[in-house]
Amino acid sequence: MIKRAQGRKRFGRKNFKQRYFRLTTQDLTYSKTKGKEPLCCIPLDQILAVERLQEDSFKMKNMFQIIQPERALYIQANNCVEEKEWIDILTKICQTNANRLERYHPSAYINGRWMCCQAPSEVAPGCSDVSQGLEVGLQMDLDPDRELQRIHSLFIAHMDRLDRLRSACECQAVYTGDMCFLPSFIIEDVQSCFKMLNQLRETVFNLEQEHRSYLKLLTRETKYGSKQAPIGDDNYLLLAARVRHQDSSQLRITCSLPK
Prior knowledge:
Helix content is 36%, strand content 17%.
């Protein structure tokens, strides 16, 4: 993305430069290119608000601002989708910050005044309410076991697609490392994608092994006609049939994974 200089140097020029942004659970950093040392580090607890920037500020589209105690960082995303994704994720992460702002300036401070309200002071209070983001008091009740089971089922059901994707970039990842062009998208970092697909495939395989072992153990320990599985209980019969079917079939994922 492109960012505008924050004016940390007293006599520095506030121009626009291409930078590589990296978000972790602790901070937001940017550097000249991927893998280089960060030029700036912004702790997440120091972000007061993340809002869109009005287009008339710099005559540029897809811009948003990360407001900090001393200054605001103005960033231009590559498109409106990327802009929304960054605003959403940063807003969610910083939603509970103790010093979060209630009002902000939707335009930039240029030539000695705020473009939105014409206030001359750079420290003038904001003139617009910040976005609400997540609803106050919103609670999400998640069942980790059920969610893991759902994710596992999705991977198993679509493992053939993952294998096709892995095969498509395998040769380029191993021998050339060039970009991989597929009908619907482009993989820029083929080697990292290939490595990730192998790790994902191995994880799904191990999880499937654990799942099958658990079903076998459950079937052995549950006696038909007991209190846990009374006679006529369809759930037990379905479980037993499922285990027999798995024993007679091969795993969809092979153990031989490339290193």
